[in-house]
C-alpha cells in the first residue's frame, strides 16, 4: 500500500499554562490532532508556564535535534526560605527571612558560565529506572550527582522587592539543556545563608524558537529544519535521491570531524538536515524518505 502524508506532521509551539504537566499537553494534542505520534523536546514542571516544543507525526523524529538546545527563562527567586522541592509547591524547611543582600551580584556571578549543579531531588531524572520525584514521594532520600551545565546569562530584571519578609528577585536565565532553575534558586539562597526557592518560572525560548511564536498552527517540517539549521547546502537531483535513501555522497563544506550541520535543499525545496556524526557526514533528518 502506498504511503500518504495525510496525517498531521510538523512542530507545534505551545504556550503551556500553569497546572498542566508536559504529558497533559501531549495527551490533549493527541486528541485534538487525532494522532498518537506526539512528543516534546523538554519537560516543563506543572508550576511552570511557557514554551513547549511538540513534534507531531514525523516531526517526532526531529525532536532528537531539538531536545539539547539552549533554553531561556524568566523566573522569580524568593530569598529567605528553603523548601522540600526548591519551589513554592514544597513544604518550607527553613524560613529566616531576608530584607536585603548587599553582595548579591557577587554571588550571582558564581553561577554564570560553566558550573557543576546538583539537580533538585524532585526532578524527572531516573535513579535505577525510577524517576527521582517518584522516589521522594515514596519517602526515599534521594542523592543526585552533580552534573556540568552552562549558564550563559543570569541577570536581575527590575528591582528586588520585599514580600512578607522575603526578598523576591525577577531574573532572566539563558542556559544549556539540563539546567535546573529551581536548583539555581536553592544554591543562590544557600550561598547567601538565607535559603531560596523558586516561586515562578516561564520558559521564553528553546533554541531558535521564542514564546511569541507559540501558535495553534503546525510549523512545517521544512520551516522547522531551516529554523534549526539556517545554513543550507544545495544538492542536485542525484544527490537529493541519495539523501532521501539515507545516503550522503556530498560534503558541500561540512567538516566530518566537527559539529557542522546544514539543511539540505533541492532548488527551493527543503529535504532535511545533514551533519557530522561519528566522523562521517550523514543524514540526520529526512522529511520524506524514499
Automatic annotation (TrEMBL):
Alphabetical list of SUPFAM superfamilies matching this protein: Pseudouridine synthase (SSF55120)
GO BP terms: mRNA pseudouridine synthesis; tRNA pseudouridine synthesis
Domain tRNA pseudouridylate synthase B C-terminal: 182-225
Enzyme class, UniProt record, top EC level: isomerase
Catalytic residues (UniProt): 45
Domain (Pseudouridine synthase II N-terminal): residue spans on this chain: 32-181
EC identifiers of the protein: 5.4.99.25
Alphabetized InterPro entries for the sequence: PsdUridine_synth_cat_dom_sf, PsdUridine_synth_N, tRNA_psdUridine_synth_TruB, TruB_C
UniProt xrefs under Pfam families: TruB_C_2 (PF16198), TruB_N (PF01509)
Reported function: Responsible for synthesis of pseudouridine from uracil-55 in the psi GC loop of transfer RNAs.
Family affiliation: Belongs to the pseudouridine synthase TruB family. Type 1 subfamily.
Xref: PANTHER family: PSEUDOURIDYLATE SYNTHASE TRUB1 (PTHR13767:SF2), TRNA-PSEUDOURIDINE SYNTHASE (PTHR13767)
Protein known as: tRNA pseudouridine synthase B
Naturally occurring in which organism (per UniProt): Scrofimicrobium canadense
Gene name per UniProt: truB
Amino acid at each position: 500500500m502506498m504511503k500518504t502524508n495525510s496525517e498531521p506532521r510538523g512542530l507545534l509551539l505551545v504556550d503551556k499554562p500553569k497546572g498542566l504537566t508536559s504529558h497533559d499537553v501531549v495527551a490533549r494534542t493527541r486528541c485534538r490532532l487525532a494522532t498518537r505520534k506526539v512528543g516534546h523536546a523538554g519537560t516543563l514542571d506543572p508550576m511552570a508556564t511557557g514554551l513547549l516544543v511538540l513534534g507531531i507525526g514525523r516531526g517526532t523524529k526531529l525532536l532528537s535535534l531539538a531536545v539539547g538546545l539552549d533554553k531561556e527563562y524568566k523566573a522569580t527567586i524568593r530569598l529567605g526560605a528553603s523548601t522540600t522541592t526548591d519551589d513554592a509547591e514544597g513544604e518550607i524547611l527553613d524560613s529566616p527571612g531576608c530584607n536585603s543582600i548587599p553582595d548579591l551580584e557577587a554571588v550571582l556571578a558564581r553561577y554564570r558560565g560553566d558550573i557543576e549543579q546538583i539537580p533538585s531531588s524532585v526532578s524527572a531524572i531516573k535513579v535505577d529506572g525510577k524517576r527521582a520525584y517518584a522516589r521522594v514521594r515514596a519517602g526515599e532520600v534521594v542523592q543526585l550527582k552533580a552534573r556540568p551545565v552552562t549558564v550563559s546569562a543570569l541577570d536581575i530584571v527590575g528591582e528586588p522587592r520585599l514580600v512578607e519578609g522575603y526578598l523576591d528577585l525577577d531574573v532572566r536565565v539563558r542556559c544549556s539543556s539540563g539546567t535546573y532553575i529551581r536548583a539555581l534558586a536553592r544554591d543562590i539562597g544557600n550561598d547567601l545563608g538565607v535559603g531560596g526557592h523558586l516561586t515562578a518560572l516561564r520558559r521564553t525560548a528553546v533554541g531558535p524558537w521564542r514564546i511569541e511564536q507559540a501558535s495553534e498552527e503546525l510549523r512545517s517540517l521544512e520551516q522547522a529544519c531551516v529554523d534549526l539549521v539556517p545554513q543550507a547546502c544545495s544538492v542536485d537531483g542525484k544527490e537529493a535521491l541519495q539523501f532521501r535513501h539515507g545516503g550522503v555522497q556530498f560534503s558541500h563544506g561540512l567538516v566530518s570531524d566537527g559539529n557542522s550541520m546544514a539543511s539540505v535543499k533541492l532548488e527551493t525545496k527543503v529535504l532535511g538536515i545533514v551533519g557530522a556524526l561519528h566522523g562521517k557526514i550523514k543524514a540526520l533528518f529526512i522529511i520524506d524518505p524514499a
